[in-house]
Amino acid sequence: MSGAHLSRDFFELIKNIGESRSKQEEDRIILREMSTLKDKMKEKDITKAKMKELCIRMIYVEMLGHEASFGYIQAINLSCVKHLAQKRVGYLACCLCLHKDHQLMLLLVATIQKDLASDNFLEVSMALTVVSRLISAETIPVIMPHVIKLLDHSNPNVRKKAIGAMNRFLELDPSAVESSLPRCKKMLYDKDPAVMGASLIIIESLVSSQPNVHKELTKTLVSILKQVTEHCLSRDYDYHRIPAPWIQLKLLRILGYLGDGDRDSSSMIYPIVREVMKRADIGINVGYAIVYECVRTAISIYPDRQLLQEAASSISRFLTADNHNLKYLGINALAGIVQIDAKHAVKHQLTVIDCLEDPDDTLRRKTLDLLYSMTNPQNVRVIMQKLMTFLRQTVDPFLRSELVSRITQIAEKFAPDNKWYIETMTTVFELGGDLVRPEMAHNLITLISSDEVDVTDPNNMRVLAVDTYVDLITKPNVPDVLLKVIAWVLGEYGHMSTKHKHDAVLLSLCDAMEQLNSKSEVRSWLLHAALKLSAYAGKAPSELERLVKRYQSSMHVSLQQKAHEFLELLKNPRSAQAALPREKYGSEEKVDADLGFLQSYVDAARAAGAPAYQPRELNTSLESLAATHGDKKKKSTIKFKAYESSVVAPTYDLPSSDPTPTPAPNIYPNPGTQAKAPSAATLPQPSSSADPFSNFSGGPWGAEGFNSGGAADPTPAATPTPTPDPTPAPAPATTAAAQTASPFEASPAPQSTSSQQIRASGGGAAGAPAPAPVMGEKQKLANSLFMGLGGEAATPPQRTTFRYAQNGQTQARTSPQPAPAPAPAPAP
């Protein structure tokens, strides 16, 4: 829009706004301008050209944060004129100043309907733009019939805007567009690539919400993606030698939804994802974006061994790049692959270690997520050390809370022994403080008090916990949640300590109570623990008695009551032992649900003339009678129904790759037809000697489609295949620890005695072994982190049963003993 036709006042306004030195000065200019606009818009003989300029000045007022509602009606009136430039300014002012629920929108609907039916495609385009911005769910039935007719408009720009308006209708009210969805799907076959690309937006919305309903689109989308990658589109859609990269990204994302958990659909997606990945790997940013989306698609669809291996190799460029953004994408993609097959992370173990030491905080967080996803019983100690180090260093409360939750989950799931578990949980309580949820403390207490603990073992979990907590209780600044756990454990099992005498434990409790502030409620927990230990021994130290007498005048009622009970029980040791019997320590008290011990009191009361107990069935009729007379009672909201069992995640039987090429069926249907999905036996298999798309013929686009402007070369442009990295991936070394088998390997490969293996193992002509390479600190750390993620399975070590608490219940888990140090991996 040129400024030759604008007045001098408008230019002065822009100049003054740009030269203002403070917000106050700018506000004064805008308030003066608002007063001028109000006066000029009220003039009766003002021309439409002048009104257009005033609307533009009103837009500036709104952009700077001031309300110019006095000019909204003038903008709506300006959108009704025939002059295109003036109509465009009126629509622009309406889009910027109004919203879909504004009360003046009813005045604009009639103008939009008239412009949608216009013969001028510019007016139609402007009206469709306003429809996508300002139409609400209530006005969809009025506008949608006009928009559906425009899907067949001769101008491709109108068709593209019409499909965008339909996508907006789908976002506002999916039920209103349900009958028109087949018509929207047909826009995939439009001859114009821009219209086809616009239709992918609404297709993605449909497929992401209901992928099983739209499975028939898989063949069509694969065909479209194949034609895009083979440069069937005009060169105008290329970006840095990549054909239509944004269309490729959208298609890959949709195919990821369609292939999720569906082997038949995924088998049609494997070849095209592999081909797109090879063509896009040319070392530029837009190519990295397509490769990353291919990796995400390979993770989303039904897993394939060969495709996952190629995806893991493709992200090597991300992990070795100097750009932190590419490293972040590489770590994120590797974390997704590890969820399916953890052995692919072994190749990049040194790179992951470098990312852990990177100064970029975001990259280190993402690397910690990767470590969490690949934790196993062999590397749990090393990964836990890294997580603990990061927990000590970070100050972000949200990250600290997430780290505490993940550390406790790993400790409960992969703890190698009882001592390690108690030490780890104690450290988490110390570092986490108030971020530790009460359920975690409850799980720890449930585990320690479990009946599965072998009390005959002198080093059982209870003894270890008591000895650990006696040394810890006197430390300063111990979190309250940990002090409560310590108080409970020492009160129940303090007498089992092998390192500390009975009086020493009681004195430690006294010191802890003295260190607490006056408002702490934990002192009641510690006092109760001291009471149980004193009742067990039948006496209490004089220091403890003096402390308890002082607490008789405490401001806290609960502490005062416990102090009085403490002193009364100490006066008679037999009463104390009867109230707190030794054999009940650490055991769960059984509750008599029938309250049979009260029967004697009931009989005595009945003999004295008390009324008999009325069953609940009789009370129900009385309650209903009282409700009819207005004595309504509030319905209870307490639910006594048990929780439902958790849903078991489905397991996949992954297809094995067959090196023998199989003829590919014609999986591209014509518009309006639907082909039956091929069976697993006839699915196309990738081959290095044959083109996986050699038998594909037809499709929605051909000579009459994108190439209608002229004859197209039937032979696609040859795209050089990237040379693979000559450096072989380091083979995982066989260790004495049990290696976690890959989900793709049904059984270990048979041993071979080929000459290549003899040379690889270091054997020469005389059979003398080569000296073992010297490992650095980083290689040792990498071997410890990636232990158990791949390689041949060794003889499993002795396994012991470890008990842990989850959701308030004690569960058993079999875990290996700590594995010895792994053998060094060969240098890359």
Please give the structural blueprint.
Blueprint: H1 8-19, H2 23-41, H3 48-63, H4 72-78, H5 84-97, H6 105-116, H7 121-134, H8 140-150, H9 156-172, H10 174-177, H11 181-185, H12 193-209, H13 217-229, E1 238-239, E2 242-243, H14 245-258, H15 263-280, H16 285-300, H17 305-314, H18 316-319, H19 324-340, H20 349-356, H21 361-373, H22 380-393, H23 397-414, H24 418-432, H25 438-448, H26 461-472, H27 480-493, H28 502-515, H29 522-537, H30 542-551, H31 557-571, H32 573-579, H33 599-607, H34 616-628, H35 755-760, H36 777-785, E3 799-806, E4 809-816
Antiparallel strand pairs: 1-2, 3-4
Helix pairs in contact: 2-3, 3-5, 4-5, 5-7, 6-7, 6-8, 7-9, 8-9, 9-12, 12-14, 13-14, 13-15, 14-16, 15-16, 15-17, 16-17, 16-19, 19-21, 20-36, 22-23, 23-24, 24-26, 25-27, 26-27, 27-29, 28-29, 29-31, 30-31
In short:
This protein has 828 residues and is an all-alpha fold.
User: How much is the average pLDDT?
Assistant: 76
Tell me the β content. Answer: under 5%
Shape: elongated
Helicity, as a percent range = 40-55%
Question: For the report, how would you describe the main beta sheet?
Answer: 2 strands, antiparallel
Assign the structural class, choosing from mainly alpha, mainly beta, alpha/beta, alpha+beta, or little secondary structure. mainly alpha
- The first-to-last residue Cα distance is 61 Å
Number of strands: 4
Rounded Rg: 38 Å
Strand order within the widest sheet? 1-2
Count every helix, treating DSSP H or I runs of 4 or more residues as helices. 36
Unreliable residue runs: 631-640, 645-652, 654-700, 702-770, 791-810, 812-828
